[in-house]
Amino acid sequence: MSFFLFLMIIGLAIGWSNSRRETKKLKRQLSELQASVTRLVQRIEALETRMDPGASDEPPAAAPEREEEFREIRMEPEVETESQPKESVSPPIPVRVTEGVADSPMGRSPEPESVPEAESGRLSRRSRLEWELLIGGKWLNYIGAVALVIGLGFFVKYAFENNWINETVRVLAGGAAGFLLLWGGARFHKRGLPVFAQGWIGAGIAILYVSSFASFNFYHLVSPEVAFLFMSLVTLLAFQQALRYQALAISVIGWIGGFLTPFLLGSERGSTLGLFTYLAFLTIGMLLLVIKKANWVILYYMTLGAVYLILLSWIPFNQEPAELWLESFFLCLFWAFFFAYEVYSSLRPAKWPMANTIAAGFHLFFFFLGWNLLLLPRHEDGLSAVFLLGGVAYLVPLLFLHRRQKLSLVSREEVFRYGFSFLILLTLANAYQWEKYHLIYAWTVEAWLLVWWGARRKIRHVCGFAVILYAVSSFMLLALSAQFQPEQETWFPFFNLRALAYIGLSAALGTSALLLKRWDMKLVVPAVPFLHNGWAILLFLFLTGETNFYFDHIFLNAGPALRESLSYSRYLICSLVWMAYSLWIAWVAFRQQIRSLVATGWALLGVGVITAAATGMAYGPADQFIPVYNLRFLVFVIAAGIIYVHLRWWKKYEHDLKLKAIPVVMIGTLAVLLFELISMEIGDYYDKQLLHTSLAMEQMIRFSKTMSLVLAWFGYSLFFAWIGFRQRLQALVYLSWGVLALGLLTAIWQGFSYPVLDRFTPVYNLRFFTLLIAAGVLLVHYAWWKKQTEVHAKKVHPLLFTILITGLLFELVTVEVSDAFERIRYLADQSDVRLLHQLDNQKQMSISIAWLIYSLVLMGAGIWRKLPLLRLVAIALFGLSIFKIFLFDLSFLGTLYRIFSFIGLGVILLIVSYLYQRYKHWFHQSA
Prior knowledge:
Blueprint: H1 2-51, H2 123-161, H3 167-190, H4 194-217, H5 224-245, H6 248-264, H7 272-292, H8 298-314, H9 321-346, H10 353-375, H11 381-403, H12 412-433, H13 436-457, H14 460-482, H15 497-518, H16 527-557, H17 560-592, H18 595-615, H19 631-652, H20 661-690, H21 695-727, H22 730-750, H23 766-787, H24 798-827, H25 833-864, H26 868-892, H27 895-918, H28 920-926
């Protein structure tokens, strides 16, 4: 009784839905009839207008409003009013809309007629109607089918819980309901309701799957084999229904059921052979279905993912040796299935080419991952052969089509994909065959051959892949070099595996760049600077490593005394190697006119110079230092020569390299290097003496070191100022002035006191000569500047030079007089207070008289040379002398010394006044 009640409910639901759909169908047919009648009326009126020429002279009536065109679908045609003339413009043609959407895969109704361009204003209303029909006629149908299955499921569950139906009847009722739904779907499809029929058929297939599964898993009415057969038949039925009714949705249901069948029935009981044989036949069926229905390509993507997901999940848990060959066979078989479809689809116009490319990429990745899971780690040697054969397989279709001269049938993207797959697998084959430096050799040869072939054939993608392979090889070589530990007993410079890898890869990069330039591969021009800079940097790292390994080799066999010298020499030799290498790089770059390589050469030169400058700040060990005859001096001189050669080459090719700052930078670098060399040589000479001297002499040696440095800086400033004024290089002039200022400040600061008074000799001492030479150097700078004032726009005021020169001489006079008395005082009896006081008075009086005499000399020179600034300075010194005598000497000196001070002041001032009165016409001329 319950079973019949169940069937009655299903029948009522089907009848109500059928009547509702039939009513809507009749309404749509009436609207189509109305549209057809309207269209015929319009055509008749157009013919009458052509047959009656006089009608064309009458003004046409306004077109009827379109506002109510689709607001409702009338059940009878509209009747024209008498006020409307026959010649009036006919109403617009409504769009005839079928019961389904036009692009429905099951739709067989005629396509709607094309809309004239003049009627494009109605697209928005038409779209709203189509959306309404799509939602109401298609989506609600799918949702209703799902809801029906769920509702029936709840009803069946409720019936099962109350034991209304026994187990056998339950299964049979489910099967009967499924076939009944299939029959209903067929009926609705014949009546012109294809979309609605899909819901019925899909629900029927789902119920048949559930019934077959329940007969085994829940009720144990049949064996697993029988249940498997039932579900397989349901799958075939699903695909048959999908093809019959052109319904993708039904095929998706069949696909889901087909792939879930072995797992729902407990696939752990089966064997690898049974499972993958079933999947193989299922895959063949899916591919044939997709070939027949090209628009159902989504089934191919789903099948590809599902098959490899099952395969890759199965292999890790079945690692028995007996199953290795079986799993390998099926892995090759599935790859062959999908690869065959890829080849087939590449010969046909693709609707979604990007999706096919992505799927092919996943296929290649799954292939790689599957073989890794299968053969690692026990059979790693076989991976190289597998990937090599796989790469050849990807290359075979291209070679075949090229030989048949049908390669143009395949799109460029497909050709690139096959070629890229071949290159990827070939590279992986090398990676699994070789290791460490031998792998670098293999990849280098492969990349060079690819560049040669790609440049010759002008295939941009091949050259691009080779450049990427070069980059990977370079990074791998750097990683290996970081871990390289040479065997000191057998290692030999430049003849080892590491050296061969660097030299081979650098040579390949350089020749590849020349090949690309030779065959004019404009599409890969950005790769040429990359290749040039790549080999230059690799050789730089190679030379650095070999040099360091050589020093390590010597260091192990050296004694303690030699190890310190080797540690210091290592960095100087490295910097020398880098600078010499930069010279060779620059020569190649200038000869071949490679701009990027010129910059690389300059960068390497900078690295070498900075390293040499930083290392040369101190000499080690200091007790082994010999002035001039040492490694640092040699390196600095060679560095200066290399910089000069770089500068000459730049001047020769400056028309190609518009970089005006280069000579300034290079000359500045050269100047800084020479400045450091001079300073360090002098400093280390005195530092070596400090190692073997007494504490009493230490101050004198340090003082001599400072004054010697100052004298060297003065000479340095004169040399570069001469070059700067001669070559019109303001930067070099300013640099020389900076060094001059450094020397002046040091001389002035150190000149205030003499370190060892018992060794002081007035006038005949190092400080006197230093300050006197400083004044002379300033005078020479001033003379050169004055000569070049027309050249330089920015003029330094002469007052600065005048103040500096007179100030230096003023300090010289003061400290010499002061230290002469300080020496006498130092050697005198320190207990004789009267003598010490007398010496202090003599010192102050002598300083005052010396100032006055110095001021008088400056005044005389100013009058003689007609230099107003010099006379002004002399007057200022007179003022300072008067201030000292009247305030200081008057307070502290004795009477006799006051007399001499004031008499001397008066005499000198009178002489100055006489000179001003006697030669006042000179002052007017100088003014």
